[in-house]
Amino acid sequence: MTSLSRRALLRGAAAVSGALAVRGLAAPELPQLRNGEILPDPDFSLLRKSQPYLIGVRPHRKGGVRLELDPAPLETPSGKKHVIHNYGHGGGGITLSWGCAAVATELVEQAMERVRLDRGNPTVAVLGTGVVGLTAATEIRRRWPSLPVTVYARDLDVRSTTSFVAGGQFEPSGIFREYEGDDSRQRTFASYLRKARDRIVQIQRSGQRQLYGVAERKNYTLDHEVRAFDLATPPDVVPGFRKGKLPFEKLNAVGREYSNWLINPTILLPRLVQDLQGAGVRFVRRQFEDVREVAALAENVIVNCTGYGAKKLFADAAMVAQRGHLVVLQKTQEKQLYFFSGGCENPVIAYVFCRQEDIVVGGTVQAGNDLATAVPGDEPIFQRIIANARQLFGGHPAACVP
Predict the structure, then answer these.
(1) Which among 22, 33, 119, 239 could disulfide-bond with 244, CB atoms 3.0 to 4.6 Å apart, if both were Cys?
(2) Which residues of 336-362 are buried (b: 16+ CB within 10 A; e: fewer)?
(3) Which of 359, 360, 355, 361 minimizes the C-alpha distance to 400?
(4) Per-residue pLDDT reduced to its tens digit, 138-166
(5) Closest C-alpha among 137, 112, 140, 132 to residue 66
């Protein structure tokens, strides 16, 4: 049986609608999404009391995520050190983390076999305490409960990581573009997303989703193509959208409703640290200046989850910093349990993520800028983010300004 891609289905639906118009027949009336229920708007004047303005540097990589067992081990006087690379997820780190952790675990098994062939006893080092490092360490510990594992990072406070600043929507933002146009690589990318979905669903079904910051969400967008969903994400991971009138008081134009997940990093990351420490994983503060210091580690299997740090540490010129701005609001109503993403009616980036305890509003992409702290020139950008969100929810999605 021939299967249709999501793109083909969307084109087919558009063709049917157009054919009805040509024949003089009225297209079916679009439904009100949520059966006419009106969801409460955020209060865009009510900033979070602590640190409402955030900066994060996404670790984007030209060519896509580097997820491989390095064919050239590090040669040291104490023996070979086998390196697994798992970095370069860009704006999709939260989304891809569990899926890439599953693949990294398979690569660790291969590396352990090489250690045993050299008559050694496998021990594992994980570099990085962002979401990619912590999920990798978690999956390794789940697979081998008694395997010696140590997590190294320059700062053991997860609040210092880019991951902690992220909004937490399941969507392979930005990085998906690196896989377009190549069927084989697109299938690989889809496999990462499916593995991620499987682990998230497992957490949901365990009854512990609240402990890990996982929640199902409806994601609303204007009625335009959202390539990260429509083209890059398999429909068995994020189903095709429903089309109808958006469920907001003034933002009630025709739009789309997707079903995906919130994975809140402010809940997830501290929980993973707690789990790992409880399972006997050591955490060590260590600043690595070059690969020789990595090779000097006692462990013989090294999982490199250093994100943007891999640019310097492993001389990866494909790494590109993508600086982003977020504004965090106070949550005011229980029914603020949705995402709005996909941008404005013009190409301006804009999104609103309602989380368990707050609301994140974004955003920007400043390619090539790796400044991780706010400077005076950022203030107008934060104000513009809020102004654009007000325009959107005020019913003026074409009025956003870049």
Answers:
(1) 33
(2) bbbbbbbbbbeebbbbbbbbeebbbbb
(3) 361
(4) 999 999 999 999 999 999 999 999 999 99
(5) 132
Q: Is the pLDDT of residue 207 over 50?
A: yes
Q: Average pLDDT for residues 325-350, to the nearest whole number?
A: 96
Quick one: which H or E segment has residue 220?
strand 214-222
Structure tokens at 191: 């496999």
DSSP output for 74-129: EEETTEEEEEEEEE-BTBTHHHHHHHHHHHHHHHHHHHHHHHHHTT----EEEE--
Distance CA 213, CA 263 (A): 5
Tokens 């291969």, located at residue: 110
What gap in Å lies between CA 64 and CA 177, rounded to an integer? 8
What is the predicted pLDDT for the residue at 300? 97
Other CB atoms within 10 Å distance of the CB of residue 218: 17
pLDDT in tens, 365-396: 999 999 999 999 999 999 999 999 999 999 99
43 close to 49: Cβ distance less than 8 angstroms: no
Q: How far is residue 143's CA from residue 344's CA, in Å, rounded to a whole number?
A: 44
Distance CA 351, CA 324 (A): 12
Q: Which two tokens stand for residue 379?
A: 């203030």
**How far apart (Å, rounded) are the C-alpha atoms in residues 236 and 201?**
12
What pLDDT digit, counting tens, does each position of 8-48 carry? 554 455 444 444 333 444 446 788 999 999 999 999 999 99
The contacts of residue 119 (CB under 8 Å, 6+ apart) are: none
